[in-house]
Every structure is written in structure tokens, then in C-alpha cells.
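Hi there,

I know you've been waiting on this one. I reran it after we fixed the sequence typo, so this is the corrected version. Both the input and the resulting structure follow.
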Amino acid sequence: MSDFVHENLPCGIEFGVAPLPQRHVVSFQIRVLTGACAEPPDKLGLARLIGETIDKGTQQRTGRQLSDAFDAIGASRGSATGRETATFSCTVLPEHFDKAVALHAEFVRAPTFPEDAFTASIQLARQELLALEDDAHGLADKLIGQKAYGPLLGRHPLGEPETLDRITRDDLEDHWRSHFHGGRIVVAVAGAVDPKRVAEIFQEQFDGFGSPHRDGRVTFPVEFSAGATHHHKELEQEQIGICWPGVQATHDDFPIQQVILGVLSGGMSGRLFTEVREKQGLVYWVNAWQETPRGTGMIFLGASTTPDRCDRTYATLLREVDRLANDIQQDELDRAITGLVAALETRGDSTRARCAELANDLFFFGRPRTDEERVAKVQAVTIEDACRYLTTYPRDRLCVVTLGPRPLADSAIEDAHPNDSGPA
């Protein structure tokens, strides 16, 4: 991807293009820099409702007519609303690229938010919130996210039942007018396209769309809540979530963090799977992962176990993290690096994945990055780097959430924190 193009258009759009002339399709993402963090605190869930209804009718077409127009060009498309962005993605044949962009511009620029579509989206959001109560894994993720990030970044896209009750159709239109404009849009394109034509079509379609002033490129405050919280629910399994601060995606130590997580949870050879599940049989499911909202980073451990094994599982998870700095081996470091490099390089085989990767680079770094740059940083990680990272970023401030029939015993928490009264 060394021949990529990165520019800012007069309409305010920041765009990057990865020309891939041998590909048979074109993928693009339109990211509007507004998400759940931009919602009024008394109307949580508003951003996702906009994402669900923005293409259900425009000043030119009904929602059905718009959907038929996309189907007529064979477009594969999707949308998602997250903490910081609303994303619209599309993959299409090169000869239909102009039309696909024009259709996206139509609903992004001129939605009508039909009342019937709004009502249906509200009902679906309420049903999804009810379903979340029966999804132990998803509910545990929501609960620990609130504790890990605080009232802004910890918001759940679905909102809450009481906040959904306050949202009106006019709220959607007002929020769209305030937060959707050219200066808040980042576009990534990958495939068989001419970068000059990409610039022309996006400038043409989004010219005059609100303010061209670049906006929305801010980081949101994190309010990390150290401590242990239990949420009682009569379940056969106990959900355990643990997190602590890590580093953000742009930090020099981020590749080291990636490799360490690969050692912990890089498939069936990862330490958590082999030690916690295979050797001790403590869990049904176990994993370690990272989340990196812009400007911050969190490390997560998660497991599902029986209530009577909850304390032992908790202690074992932390023990596996603690002993990394003392006994990490070169072969498992190499295995983690190989897995990461393979994932990085095979992602490039998919035009859609290449586009998403470029969009992430623009979002986090403000520039495209080459595959060679990404791979080199991961391959350069050594055991000494891993040990330094584990010393520099210890798991000395933990946020712990359990969901199930019983809380962690005080003795289990104290054993895991011998120098503290709890995970604080």
C-alpha cells in the first residue's frame, strides 16, 4: 500500500485511497466522527437510532426505493454506530462505484427520518435491550465497559430503556443537523479505482454539505473505576471480567502489547487456553483482548466458569498475567508474532479488510500506514521489550466485574492483591 493517496477535499472530507488495480471490486467506508459519546446524556441511544433510520427515506426516494437502487448495482453494504463514529461501508464493482457513492451521499445529506421507521427502530432497540439481559456474555461486556471507561466512553450504543423513552423523531433530525457535515467525514477507499476520480466524485457529491471545517477529531475523557463489582443474576455460569489500563493504538509500545496479548490468548496455544481451560478445566470460555478508543487503551480478560470455581478462576487468570514477566519463552513469543504477522498479511487479501484497515489508520494516526511498517514493528518485539512493558504497565489498578449467582470471595480478592485491601 505504498502508493496510497491521502488528501483533504474542499468540502471538508479527509480521504485516503489504496489503489489495487488487480482487484475486481472496490470497497469504501464513510466514517462520520460522531457516535454515542456525542449524545445528550438524557437521550442515550440516539446516535444508533440515527444510524438505523438515516437510509429509510430521503428527499428523493423512499427507503424501499433506495434499497432497490443499491440492489440494482449489486452493492454489499452495512452500517455501524460505535462510541466515536457512525460508519457506512460498501463493496461494489468498479463500474458502479460512482453510483454507490452518490446513493450514500443522498441518504447522508438528505435523510427524512420517516416517522414509521423511527417508531420501528425504537421498538427494535427496546427488544435488543431486553435480549441483552438474556445474553450473559454481552451483558457482562456492557457492565465492565461502564466501569472501565466512565459515563462517556462507557456508554452502550443501545442506550437505556429510560433514555429511549425520551427520544423523539425531531431529536434525530436535530442531532443529525448538528453532527453530520463534511468536516466530520473521513473516507477510505480500496480497490480498482483512480484516486483522482475518487476525489472528484466525493467532492462533487458532498460539496456544500455543512461546514468544511475539520471537526470531531477529539479524544474523550476516561474515568476508570478500580474495584470489584458484582451483579447478581441467576445463571448456571459465572461471568468474570477484568480490565486495567494499557496503551493506545498510536503508542510506540502498542506492538509489544499486541504480542503479549498473543502470548496470552493467541489461539489454542495461548497461555489462557492451555493453562486455565485445558490443564485445569476451570472455564467454558476464556480470552484476553484490547480495546483502543482514540487516546486511550484497555486490556481485558474474560472468562465463563461455574459459580463454585469463580474464585479459583479469578486467581488463575491474574497469576497467568503476573508470571509472564518471569518466564516468557522465545518460542511462544515467536508463535505470537507469527500469528500477528499472518493476520496482518492475510487481511490484505480482502479488499474490504484493506479498506477497513486504511480507515482505522486515518482515524487513529491521521495518515495511511504501509503493511511493511505494521509488520516490522511487530517483528521487532523482543523478550526484553515484553518484560519492560509488563514492568512499565503493571496490572496494579484493576476493574473487576462478576455477573452470576455469587460474588468473588473477599479472600480471593485479597490473595490476588496482597499489598492492597482490594483491586484499587
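Quick highlight: Residues 115-132 form the longest helix (18 residues).

Best,
R. S.
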